[in-house]
Amino acid sequence: MHYALLMGCCMTEKATQRKLTAILSADVKGYSKLMGDDDESTVNTITTYRKIIAGLIQKHQGRVVDTPGDNILAEFSSALNAVNSAVEIQSQLKTENDKLPDNRRMLFRIGINLGDILHKDNRIYGDGVNVAARIESLADPGGICISRGVFDQIKKRVRHGFEYLGEHKVKNISEPVRIYRILLSPKYEGKIIGEPVRRPTKLQKRYVVTIAILLICGAALLWIFYPLQVRIEPASIEKMAFPLPEKPSIAVLPFDNLSGDPNQEFFSDGLTEEIITTLAKSPKIFVIARNSTDTYKNISIKVQEVSEELGVRYVLEGSVRKDVNKTRITVQLIDTIKGHHLWAERYDRDVKDIFAVQEDIAKKILTALEVNLTEGEQASMMAKGANNSEAYIKVLQSTYYRRRLNAEDNSKARRLAEEAITLDPEYAFAYTTLSRTHVVDVWLRTSKSAKESFETAIELANRALSLDDFLADAYDILGNIFVLKKKHDEGIRHLERAIELEPNGADFQAHMGMALYLSDRSQEAVQVLLKAIRLNPNPPSWYLHNLAVAYNFVENYDEAIFWGEKAVKLNPKSLLGHYILCAIYSSAGLMDSAKREALEVLKINPNFSVAKIEKTNPLKNESIKKRYFDSLREAGLPE
Questions:
Q1: CA 607/CA 76 separation, integer angstroms
Q2: Which CATH class for the 13-193 domain?
Q3: How buried is residue 309: exposed, middle or buried, by Cβ count under 10 Å (0-12/13-18/19+)?
Q4: Among 140, 330, 371, 554, which residue is least crowded by beta carbons within 10 Å?
């Protein structure tokens, strides 16, 4: 619903006041649907939100003019006050919305215009109001858009970034209005994205060619002697948390979601992961895993700090804005050691072209890093994408839900993956996405039959390979399942193929490490697991659990205790973490510590049984298996 007030035709000059005012117009995206679904709850929510908005408008010296339906109209004597009010409104409403279920959240769009208006009977009228309503309609849910007049007033007075959205026609207004979106993420502070370059006047045109030639010559000289002079603060090799790899090393930061819709996070996250996965297939570069770069999501941090914390030279950062079937993707590659940008690009494409964009980004990164691939390496890097863009979207959504690791979301993930396959039966990755939901069912103990779930997962992974035999994900699934089924050699062969196809796949390396110690190759497992942690410096706790077990089996108890304690600290509620640490303490002869951990195990699961987990454990070496589970019994855990 959009708001506009029309100027009355019978108003006299005597009855009106005219002045320049900042006008704030706001409405709720999807208000009619919210009312249709639950009118009582919607009225209660909007009543609460109106009070919050009115209070913040008053705080910033504004005045609420009218509040019909889901609309709010306010005026400010200062454009700066209007913008500061809008920013605080969206921030506070986000906090309130986070308390509500997704389907009950009330997202306001805000537009601000600076215009000449007429006052009568405490109401405001005129074109300035109409323009504010039009600007508001272009804002994202939870977002703020402003006119060029407001932008000129506040651009140097606020700590926000801006994205230029172009010129837009407004009904009954002869000239198009230039509109800007306010970017609230701290990383965009002081930045203006997409600002149009002013055209030269007729008088200037005669000089353009000459100036252009001089600039090109100057730029060529600068390129030769001072490449890419846009500088940032360089990273320090001495401060690196890890030694720099000998080959080019890169971290891909989470792409910012500029759509303004939190429900589109899956798309920006998916794009980030697709680029990481594509790069990870190259054996000639070193790529940090998504789990580690994901820790920088939605926080303000300098790229040199990322470089130093992860031990990499290059950092890729970007943003994505998705509108229905269109996307705008911006990326920039930074050499943190030299402190400058190597390459930047903007893509305005249809969603159906997303795989071509991902491929182009990967190729340009490798070119900038001076990496030359063989034809075979190039072929293995470029996975077969979806033929149907809607299927691709559903796979991204499925992955997003599956990673929440609960029964309800895993069920959603399965349904979305099945829908993706229906839309595009030749999309190989959709089958591995569906396969993993069956594996998660086993881990969550929501499967009616673990054996049947594993068989279904195997069947789906093999179907994926029949469509794309370069799909490392499918080999990883098969490798894990065969090891758990005690077919160790077959499992390891599949995991070796997954790593061959994606040598930077940190999870694949960690799965291989687990497979190796389960296959009585614990010394090898230690080295592989350490490599996995280097690829993923902020790893999930299961990496650390597995490394602790591998060190325990080679009787290096100091290292086993170090990694076991670190795993439990990272995930204090992990039953697996506590009984692994209990076994390590017991094997090392530290019985007081072992008994303390045994109590933690029973606190988490009072029905814990050593015999039950021993029965299903896939350790190949029976003597090591007996020694391991006897150590749990010696610590006091029940049979």
A1: 64
A2: alpha beta
A3: buried
A4: 554
Question: What letter does residue 231 receive in the DSSP assignment?
Answer: B
Q: Give the model's pLDDT for residue 206.
A: 57
Amino acid of residue 24: L
Question: What class, spelled out in words, does domain 237-378 have in CATH?
Answer: alpha beta
User: In the CATH hierarchy, which fold is given to the domain comprising 384-460?
Assistant: 1.25.40
Distance CA 507, CA 523 (A): 19
Q: How far apart are CA 440 and CA 433, in angstroms?
A: 11
DSSP string, 564-590: HHHHHHH-TT-HHHHHHHHHHHHHTT-
User: Do 483 and 518 meet the contact criterion of CB atoms below 8 Å apart?
Assistant: yes
Which residue intervals of 444-574 are DSSP H helices? 450-467, 472-484, 488-501, 506-518, 522-535, 541-553, 557-570
- Residue 144 three-state SS: strand
Three-state SS at 320? strand
C-beta separation of 457 from 481 below 8 A: yes
Q: Which two tokens stand for residue 622?
A: 């029976």
DSSP conformation class of 521: -
Q: Would you kindly state where each structural domain of the chain is located, as residue ranges?
A: 13-193, 237-378, 384-460
- For the chain, residues with pLDDT lower than 50 are 1-15, 221-230
CA–CA separation, 577 and 544 (whole Å): 9
- Give the Cα separation of 188 and 180 in Å (integer): 14
Going by C-alpha positions, the residue among 587, 476, 467 that lies closest to residue 522 is 587
CB-neighbour burial class of residue 205 (10 A; exposed 0-12, middle 13-18, buried 19+)? exposed
The pLDDT, as a whole number, for residue 523 is 95
Q: What's the pLDDT score for residue 417?
A: 95
Residue type, 240: M
Q: Are 483 and 496 a contacting pair, CB within 8 Å?
A: no
Interhelix angle for 472-484 vs 506-518, to 10°? 20
Q: What span, in angstroms and rounded, lies between the C-alpha atoms of 473 and 237?
A: 34
The predicted structure's pLDDT at residue 2: 37
Cα separation of the two ends of the chain: 65
**φ, ψ for residue 331, nearest 5 deg:** -140, 150
Determine the angle formed by the axes of helices 622-634 and 541-553, rounding to 10 degrees.
110
Percentages (nearest 5) of helix, strand, coil residues in the chain: 55, 15, 30
Q: Which of 30, 110, 99 is nearest to 76 (CA)?
A: 110
- What is the helix (H) or strand (E) element at residue 150, kind and residue range? helix 148-154
Task: Note the pLDDT of residue 138.
Answer: 86
Residues 61 and 75: beta-carbon distance below 8 Å: no
pLDDT of the residue at 219: 53
Contacts of residue 249, Cβ cutoff 8 Å, sequence gap at least 6 = 285, 286, 287, 288, 311, 312, 313, 314
pLDDT of residue 422: 95
How many of the other CB atoms lie within 10 Å of CB of 7? 15
Which residues, other chains included, contact 508 with Cβ-Cβ below 8 Å and sequence gap of 6+? Answer: 472, 476, 495, 498, 499, 502
